[in-house]
Amino acid sequence: MLNRFSGSVFQAKEKVNDLCLYTMSSSNTNHNMSDNPIAFSQNVTVKSITRTRSNSRPFSWVKMTPTLITAFLTAIISPMLPISEAQAVMRATCQLSAEEVAKKSDLREAAIAGDQTAQAEYDALLQEQAQRLNTCRSQNWPKNQAIWVRLYPCDARPGKLDALLDRIVSKGYNQVYVETFYDGQVLLPMADNPTAWPSAVRTPGLENRDLLAEVIKKGRQRGLKVYAWHFTMNFGHTYAQTPEREAALAMNGRGQNTMNVRQELGLHADAESQEGHVFIDPYSPQARKDYNLMISEVLKRRPDGMLFDYVRYMRGVGPASVVSDVEQLWIYSPASRETLYQRALNQKGREMIRRFVANGRITAQDIAEINRQHPTEGEPLWQGRSVIATKTVATPEQLQPQLQWELWYLSVAHAVQGILDFLALAIEPIEAQGIPAGAVFFPGGNRPVGERGYDSRLQPWDRFPASMEFHPMAYANCGKTHCIVEEIQRVVSMASPQTRIIPALAGDWGKSIKGRPSLEAQMDDIYRRLGNRIDSVSHFAYAWQEPESDRDRKLCRVE
User: Fold this and answer.
1) Are 298 and 413 in contact (CB under 8 A)?
2) Quick count: other Cβ atoms within 10 Å of Cβ 203?
């Protein structure tokens, strides 16, 4: 199956050439993507070397489907439409009153102290509130409201996990996304952790505590769906500490892995250091084996869904946030480089790819030497390259610009295909069990920059399987809500109509935080403009809303 990015798409007020994998005709000589947005839809296609489940859809600029046209026009026109009376009605928050919160807290504390009567009343109250929450959410927008949370060893103390989940339910949330694999550690018990990563809970005496299983069980008691949230290509610094796994790390053409390069960490990171963010080569058999084992262990706990974050390469800082040279691509690890060589369809193609990757360019002299080495072969060939027969014999000097351009886009396509293959392999056992799988991504992570550059993350979210939930991180910060909604509109216009889109919003209730409008303001604008397409949202993060609670849980002393 061929996996491709989508082609060029015009958005409201801007012209966007979105990262794509296409088949390129060697007769094409227009390389200026900015001046000619249609030119880049001339095709570089590479095949998946491994079996994948990607639901790739070829895109034609000329043959846009009615559905895509509708989505495109909606994205442009919907902000200008009048707000209907129904839309203007204040939505219920599904939050509990202060009296209800206090009553539940008192019963919980009494139950922890051993009061059996209080325990029975507490359990009955949880069931009653779970039913009320389910009814409220089903009758109000959004139908699903989730919050992102990290657990700590302190949550293993008596009643602390209950208190956390009670507070989440009291805020009107019916879903919780629990960080399960992050910063080189996994939320599995020490006594039952066969993975390549240490357990997140390493406190003596808690070797058998399975916080992931506990939060799933306790969440369901309260009417919460519990998703396990995982980093994907970001394996963490602990993974890099074993010599046998060093070859699995992503490497660029300067011999650097991501531990040696300054990177932008983003909102999901603690920003303590970049050491916890170490990216792997998605083509590495070792990395794939280790990751799939971890996923299988999490699946044993039967979460209600599984989310995949960092489905991308690292993002550099400043000029390094854009890649425009093959040596900047993370394709120089042994597995990735060998897979790229295998994309050649003849010896000329293989040698040309090898020289381009090794030297960062192909010269007229290289072309002449390769022609002499393989006189019986015609044009150099690789996956996706089509050659138009011509009677004119071009010289190496004439061929060099075109071949240089094609080899660059082949290299980008190869880097992107690794991401798609890795994700497809990760979600296969999850979807086989009927558990929802979701991708967490930046709406702008698949944009080109300038004439031949790309966002260094190379995040091909528009080619993720349509069967997945899409969780775009709408974190734009312009002081108002319109830029946040525009990011979501971009995803709506490019995603399959069948794909569930669940925006992740950053902020807090009732107040602006870090320059972002309140969650109410963000949600109101989404509801007005996209309420007919979006019925679920998530909020990043519990730590932002409850900083004191999060700090206490993080820094407490476990007895």
Assistant:
1) no
2) 16
Distance of CA 136 to the CA centre of its chain: 30
Give kind and range of the element (H or E) at residue 437.
Answer: strand 437-441
The span from the CA of 131 to the CA of 133, in Å, is 5
Question: What does the block give as tokens for 16?
Answer: 């966007």
For 213-251, write each residue's pLDDT tens digit: 999 999 999 999 999 999 999 999 999 888 889 999 999
Asked whether the beta carbons of 278 and 235 are under 8 A apart, the reply is: yes
- pLDDT at site 17: 32
Q: CA 512 to CA 200: how far, in whole Å?
A: 32
Answer for the pair 23, 387: CB distance below 8 angstroms, yes or no: no
Q: Is residue 475 part of a domain?
A: yes
End-to-end CA distance of the chain: 55
pLDDT cut 90: percent of the chain above it = 75
Q: Find the helix packing angle between 66-77 and 482-494, rounded to 10°.
A: 170
Q: How many CB atoms lie within 10 A of CB 337?
A: 20
Residue type, 432: A
Residue 39 covered by a domain: no
In-domain check, residue 521: yes
**Residue (of 7, 547, 475, 557) closest to 267 by Cα position:** 475
For 276-293, b/e burial (b = at least 16 CB within 10 A) is: bbbbbbbbbebbbebbee
Q: Which CATH number belongs to the domain containing residue 456 in this structure? A: 3.20.20.80
Whole-structure pTM value:
0.85
3-state secondary structure of 289: helix
- Omega before residue 319 within 30° of 0, cis: no
* Cα–Cα dist 514/507, whole Å: 8
Residue 152 contacts residue 178 (beta carbons within 8 Å)? no
Separation CA 412–CA 280 (nearest Å): 17
CA angle 421, 427, 430 (to 5 degrees): 160
**15 — phi, psi (to 5°)?**
-105, 125
Please say whether the beta carbons of 210 and 300 come within 8 A.
Answer: no
CA distance 125 to 102: 12
> How far apart are the C-alpha atoms of 158 and 94, rounded to whole Å?
28
Please indicate, yes or no, if residue 462 is contained in any of the structural domains.
Answer: yes
Task: Please report, for residues 100, 132, 149, 443, the alpha-carbon distance to residue 169 in angstroms, rounded to integers and kept in the order given.
Answer: 11, 11, 13, 29
Q: Which tokens sit at 307?
A: 């989310």
Tell me which residue range forms the domain holding 125.
98-321+416-555
Report whether the peptide linkage leading into residue 118 is cis, meaning its omega lies within 30 degrees of zero: no
How many CA atoms within 13 Å lie on the side-chain side of 476? 19
Per mean pLDDT, which range of 65-74, 223-232, 451-460, 492-501 is the poorest? Answer: 65-74
Which of 173, 151, 305 minimizes the C-alpha distance to 228? 305
Q: DSSP secondary structure string, 26-66? A: TT-----TTT-TTGGGSEE-EE-SS----------SSS--H
Our count of domains for the chain comes to: 1
Could you tell me the maximum CA-CA distance found in the chain, to the nearest angstrom?
Answer: 93
Residues 6+ apart with CB under 8 A from 168: 147, 149, 176, 224, 542
pLDDT at 3 over 90: no
Query: In this structure, what is the dihedral angle of CA atoms 511, 163, 154, 240, given to the nearest 10 degrees?
Result: -60
